[in-house]
């Protein structure tokens, strides 16, 4: 039941430095994510947490190393395959909400499904919006919402296609403590309810205790804590 | 609806703020102006060309049958031989030769035609162009003058003029005189072709034969009208099989080759110049889309993270170009067609018309094919090709860099 769905081996990521040489952000990192699990990644600013998350989510490519999604090697997939993977199996939540400002909240939430099927599905989007508690805001535009409401909408959008993995990169970073706690709690509940796995990047150690596994990213490697 | 169209619509409608909207308006206006100008100018050129063609074809034959040496004798036999050809709708003998015309002190050169008053209407539209008199009433001592020729000879209906043929008469005492004859002006014709009206005059075939000492029942040419003026070559081929080898045919295209080639070239060059306007508008579209992509970079990254493929991103921006091109083409077409219609309805006068161009009303002819279709297809192809460049660039953006909007 709890099989490994995402795995990376000996992952390296180097960025070229302006003058010469390269910045080695990830140095031979290994990680396994099992289905319906929650994983925290903590580390100081600049340690490479976002970089790792982007690579795992196929938004960036590693300098070296292999990533497998359900035993298929992601490095070898075409743009089309990777796009379908992101659309149907992955959900992203970033530090900023990144909703599309020309679309209403409900249109934003339903967008991944629209991209997948070329059909609109307001029913499920409305259900998700009431789950995250902003149903009555569904016809608002993003600039009419508060920071906490925007992140709730972003969570709903990430869940729209019933993804296997949610990648969350400090989704509470921009919120005040009270709101951050609420959004984090909501995210955990939603992931449990919809049986996704969560990879949660934060530099707030307080969240770690609620996650099943936590790693610290340090000197380009992960250490379990 | 496809999601590309949905997003492209939303971006197009709501994404227009400040300078982007200004520039995309300029692109649309550029295309509008280009398309309208192409439609109007090409329609006017068609108008001139078809006006000219009408006059050339109306006053003269589609096919000219003539003999290699001297006149065609017994033309009736020749006519009987070919007149059953299904393509031929009119046939009549018409002789012609250069002559001098004299009235009082004014002397003019001209071309005298000898026509068969009973059948000539089949090949030359006298009824349409005669301003005074009737060709059926032309007597063997009568003449029909082109209007301009009548002016310069200062001759009016009922007056007599003298025609001087190049044939010479030897008098009993051995002196020689050119052969002359007095003819009474019995009609005036105005075709609107200055060259024709200035130099053409018509008498009967019988009179012509006498004046040029040709045997009776001979003619210098047989004029033929056919059903389809563009199929003259086919008819010529058929005729050459049936007729003796000394007779040969030429058509109106051969006879006016230079004129129509010049017109065609002019239309092509004009179209090309105008198409450059469209190219400039197309370059505007490239710039507009580049700016749109720049403005929407973050959205591109977000959409990629939501699983839109490169091809999907490309299509969204391509659609922006197609929207601008379509709006411009539509507006331009409406404006162009309205202006052409207005020129037609209100009979717009040409400044200085009549004396300079010999037609006083601007002629227009709107052609759906090939002009209009080619304009629309051409502009849309340019728009799409030009939109592809920035759209392809947008689709290759790195999602993370785009989200960070670097
Ligand atoms: N495209 C890039 N080019 C060059 N260097 C980069 C690039 N992206 C990230 N880096 C560098 O890689 C390092 C890791 O960046 P990353 O954003 O992954 O850190 P982080 O752990 O997410 O930090 P934070 O907690 O502040 O978000 C940083 O030193 C950063 O400057
Ligand atoms: Mg980060």
How would you describe the overall organization of this protein?
The complex is a heterodimer of chains A (225) and B (406). Chain A contains six helices and ten strands. Chain A is an alpha/beta fold and 225 residues long. Chain A has a single domain, classed as P-loop containing nucleotide triphosphate hydrolases (Rossmann fold, 3-Layer(aba) Sandwich), CATH 3.40.50. Chain A has a six-stranded mixed beta sheet, sandwiched between helices. A four-stranded antiparallel beta sheet of chain A has the order 2-1-4-5, with helices on one face. In chain A, α3 (105-117) packs across α4 (122-131), α4 packs across α5 (147-159) and α5 (147-159) runs parallel beside α6 (177-193). The longest helix of chain A is centred in the last third of the chain and has 17 residues, at 177-193. The radius of gyration of chain A is 17 Å and the shape is globular. Chain B is α+β, with helices and mostly antiparallel strands and 406 residues long. Chain B folds into two domains: 3-56 and 259-405, no CATH class; 70-245, no CATH class. Chain B has 14 helices and twelve strands. In chain B, strands 3-4-9-6-8-7 form a six-stranded mixed barrel. Chain B has a two-stranded antiparallel sheet with strand order 2-10. In chain B, α2 packs across α12 and α10 (257-295) crosses α12. The chains are: A alpha/beta (225), B alpha+beta (406).
Largest interface: A-B, 27 and 27 residues
Coarse morphology of chain A: globular
CATH topology of chain A: Rossmann fold
The largest sheet of chain A, given as strand count, sense and whether it forms a barrel, is:
6 strands, mixed
Q: Quickly count the helices of chain A.
A: 6
Q: Determine the structural class of chain A based on helices, strands and strand pairing.
A: alpha/beta
């Amino acid at each position: 039941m709890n099989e490994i769905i995402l795995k990376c081996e000996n992952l390296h990521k180097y960025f070229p430095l302006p003058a010469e040489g390269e910045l080695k952000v990830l140095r031979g990192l290994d990680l396994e994510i099992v289905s319906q699990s929650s994983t925290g990644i903590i580390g100081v600013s600049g340690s490479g947490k976002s970089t790792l998350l982007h690579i795992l989510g196929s938004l960036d490519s590693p300098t070296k190393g292999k990533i497998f999604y359900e035993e298929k090697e992601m490095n070898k997939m075409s743009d089309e395959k990777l796009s379908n993977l992101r659309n149907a199996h992955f959900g992203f939540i970033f530090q900023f909400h990144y909703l599309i400002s020309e679309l209403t909240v409900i249109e934003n939430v339903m967008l991944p499904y629209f991209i997948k099927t070329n059909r609109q599905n307001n029913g499920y989007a409305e259900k998700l919006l009431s789950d995250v508690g902003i149903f009555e805001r569904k016809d608002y535009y993003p600039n009419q919402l508060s920071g906490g409401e925007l992140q709730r909408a972003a969570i709903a959008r990430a869940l729209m296609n019933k993804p296997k993995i949610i990648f969350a990169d400090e989704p509470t970073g921009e919120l005040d403590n009270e709101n951050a706690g609420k959004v984090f709690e909501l995210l955990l509940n939603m992931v449990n309810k919809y049986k996704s796995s969560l990879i949660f990047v934060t530099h707030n150690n307080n969240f770690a205790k609620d996650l099943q596994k936590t790693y610290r990213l340090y000197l380009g490697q992960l250490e379990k804590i | 609806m496809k999601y590309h169209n949905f997003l492209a619509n939303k971006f197009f409608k709501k994404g227009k703020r400040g300078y982007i909207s200004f520039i995309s308006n300029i692109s649309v206006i550029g295309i509008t102006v280009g398309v309208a100008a192409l439609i109007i100018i090409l329609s006017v050129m068609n108008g001139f060309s078809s006006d000219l063609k009408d006059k050339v074809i109306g006053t003269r034959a589609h096919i000219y049958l003539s003999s290699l040496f001297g006149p065609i004798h017994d033309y009736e036999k020749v006519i009987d031989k070919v007149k059953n050809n299904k393509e031929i709708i009119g046939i009549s003998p018409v002789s012609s030769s250069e002559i001098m015309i004299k009235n009082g002190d004014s002397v003019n050169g001209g071309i005298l035609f000898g026509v068969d008053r009973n059948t000539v209407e089949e090949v030359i539209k006298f009824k349409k162009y005669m301003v005074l008199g009737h060709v059926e009433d032309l007597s063997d001592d009568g003449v029909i003058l082109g209007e301009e020729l009548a002016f310069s000879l200062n001759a009016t209906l009922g007056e007599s003029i003298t025609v001087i043929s190049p044939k010479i008469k030897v008098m009993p005492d051995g002196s020689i005189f050119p052969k002359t004859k007095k003819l009474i002006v019995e009609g005036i014709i105005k075709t609107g072709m200055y060259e024709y009206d200035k130099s053409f005059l018509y008498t009967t075939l019988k009179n012509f034969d006498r004046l040029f000492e040709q045997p009776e029942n001979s003619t210098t040419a047989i004029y033929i009208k056919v059903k389809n003026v563009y199929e003259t070559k086919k008819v010529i081929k058929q005729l050459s099989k049936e007729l003796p080898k000394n007779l040969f045919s030429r058509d109106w295209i051969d006879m006016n080759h230079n004129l129509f080639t010049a017109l065609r070239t002019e239309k092509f060059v004009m179209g090309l110049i105008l198409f450059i306007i469209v190219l400039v508008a197309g370059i505007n579209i490239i710039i507009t889309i580049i700016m749109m992509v720049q403005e929407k970079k973050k959205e591109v990254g977000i959409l990629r993270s939501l699983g839109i493929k490169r091809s999907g991103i490309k299509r969204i921006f391509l659609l922006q170009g197609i929207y601008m091109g379509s709006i411009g083409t539509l507006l331009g077409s409406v404006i162009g067609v309205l202006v052409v219609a207005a020129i037609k309805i209100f009979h717009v006068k040409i400044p200085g018309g009549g004396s300079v161009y010999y037609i006083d009303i601007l002629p227009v002819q709107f052609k759906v094919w090939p002009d209009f279709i080619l304009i629309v297809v051409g502009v849309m192809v340019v728009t799409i090709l030009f939109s592809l460049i920035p759209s392809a660039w947008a689709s290759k953006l790195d999602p993370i860099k785009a989200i960070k909007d670097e």
